[in-house]
Design a protein that fits this description.
Elements lengths: L15 H19 L4 H19 L5 H12 L11 H16 L8
Length: about 110
């Protein structure tokens, strides 16, 4: 049986607004590249970044908890004009953060 992957903790936020702006732009680029650029992508990226910034300002550094917060809060977002949903967005945020930390998404190292 494989060992569980340990939790991934982000470094404490030094500038949550700057992190949020980076995330908004990175997520928007990912959304536009994944299918087609659409107007809803701007709002999706903005909302996910807002959730992320608020969580970071409240001291949340655990990646799993950040992802769950994005899933939970994006449930109320209207995805009817988009190809995406809250799980896709939260998973993309996780992948972008892992990439930025140099952590292999496959194995957590």
């Amino acid at each position: 049986m494989a060992d569980p992957i340990p939790p991934i903790t982000l470094p404490p936020a030094q500038n949550p607004e700057q992190e949020g702006e980076w995330l908004r732009l990175a997520l928007l680029a990912w959304l536009n590249q994944e299918f087609i650029p659409e107007d809803a992508n701007q709002q999706i990226a903005k909302r996910a970044a807002q959730i992320f910034v608020r969580q970071r300002m409240e001291g949340e550094n655990d990646l799993g908890s950040l992802v769950m917060a994005i899933v939970t809060e994006m449930e109320s977002f209207d995805f009817s004009n988009s190809f995406f949903g809250e799980f896709t967005v939260a998973n993309a945020v996780s992948d972008l953060l892992l990439d930025s930390l140099g952590i292999d998404r496959c194995c957590g190292q």
